[in-house]
Amino acid sequence: MKPVVALVGRPNVGKSTLFNRITKSRQALVDDMPGVTRDRQYADTQWEDKAFTLVDTGGFLSVDDDYFAAQIKAQLLRAVEQADVLVFILDGRTGLSPYDRDLADLLRRTEKPVFYLINKVESLYSQENELGEFYSLGVDRLYKISAEHGLGVGDFLSDLVAMLPDAPAESGEQEEDDDNGPIRIAIIGRPNVGKSSLANRLFGEQRVVVNDKAGTTRDAIELSVNRNGREFILKDTAGIRRKGKVLDKLEKFSILKALDSMDGCDVALILIDCSEGITDQDITIAGYAEKRGCGAIFLLNKWDLVDKSEKGQQAFIKELRQKAKFLAFAPAVTISAKTGQRCHKIFGEVEKVYKQYCHRINTGMVNRIIEDAVYRDEPSLHKGRRLKFFYAAQVAVKPPTFVCFVNYPDAVHFSYKRYLVNQLRQMIPLNLTPVKLYFREKTGKIEFSGNTKEFRRIQEKKKKVMTKRDKQRKEQSRKKRERDHKNVL
Ligand SMILES: Nc1nc2c(ncn2[C@@H]2O[C@H](COP(=O)(O)OP(=O)(O)OP(=O)(O)O)[C@@H](O)[C@H]2O)c(=O)[nH]1
Ligand SMILES: Nc1nc2c(ncn2[C@@H]2O[C@H](COP(=O)(O)OP(=O)(O)OP(=O)(O)O)[C@@H](O)[C@H]2O)c(=O)[nH]1
User: Residues that bind GTP 2, according to the entry (predicted)?
Assistant: First the structure.
């Protein structure tokens, strides 16, 4: 376990800005609006070869309402409890506030090491006089920094890591391409479908603020959990709203982040609120997942509120399949994030999808499948000429991606491409993952890099299944050769 360092402070002092600077990311949402960071943000990072986990806590107070204030305070206390070292950020521009004193008292009681940073100090001289008041907190050392410009941050980090226990920097940095590595999940869905409730359910701890109001989850957060020896990294994303109905800058940013957070994800959990039926917006969101090419699972949530009969379930899934044909490979599970019904199945389903998502097969096998498919059902002629398949190979995983070398790549009809993809899906099997297939131009003889025995077997099979048309064509070309031969003579 890496040591945990928590950033605390009242809203708008610059916690997210500092978090981003240290982790070199734009992961935390930064905005002028106080109280923007409602959920905790986590990131593994390191400084001078010392690894640690940085946590950005929600602001100590909320301007919104008492409900959030209580929730955020609870989150803060939990983060403080889990942290090994606390970093208390104060605002050098606005000066000391009564809340800072309350928080300082609270932190002192934890008896954990606390670093005191005064942020937004861009000019060391002009503000020196004003900073005097911060010493009234009874602190020996105050670090003056500017999170935005990076001033003083390096000095502070050097002192911070000097007091951290050693943790191997490489821990947690598993090979991403390795299919034993962590599985990155995103939870997506329109507002209020239960994304936060599900995140809480899967993590068994209230780390995410849940609220009845639509649009509660403003930012994407990242959490990690271990199940059956496998690490799952959970991405909880903001509700993706209909494009035309974006209300303000903040929400717009959240949508972008929601889309962003699907980028690196392996499996997207697409939540649908069954009590409201399948809406166009659900299908649009599913479309985003399909475009990203990640694995996908439909979670039909709030099942506790609807007709639970077998027939009802089948009808719902049938409707989903009709409306989201493009994600036919995505498993669908009815769940209730609220009661926990069937939620225990989710990690198992994710693992199944992921296994196929990372699947790699040898070139001989790919060629065999494509060759067999082509011989069972030949593509139609292209401008009177035969479409020839020379060679096929898997070129990538996540998702499994194949390339076929043919004489006329543009001539492959989309329905023929779909047929080949379906053959690959059935034979390998790759029925639970997206599969990509591209065509590249190649001329010349048939080439096989797969094993030659395989090639010969295919050739034998080809002879057996040679169609009448093939025989006629072969006979014609033999006669033509004979004629040519005679003419030459
Ligand atoms: N001048 C100046 N402004 C800063 C600095 N650091 C942060 N800010 C600004 O302060 C505002 C709040 O920054 P955030 O990082 O969102 O603050 P936060 O503490 O995470 O806020 P909450 O999410 O409300 O808890 C933003 O407008 C930042 O651009 C700094 O070093 N100098
Ligand atoms: N009955 C029932 N209610 C649920 C279920 N899952 C979530 N809810 C309720 O639905 C409401 C919204 O849940 P959230 O988890 O906040 O939804 P969200 O998708 O994160 O919402 P946004 O942050 O607005 O995008 C809350 O009142 C939850 O208690 C469920 O399975 N059954």
Answer: 189-196, 236-240, 301-304
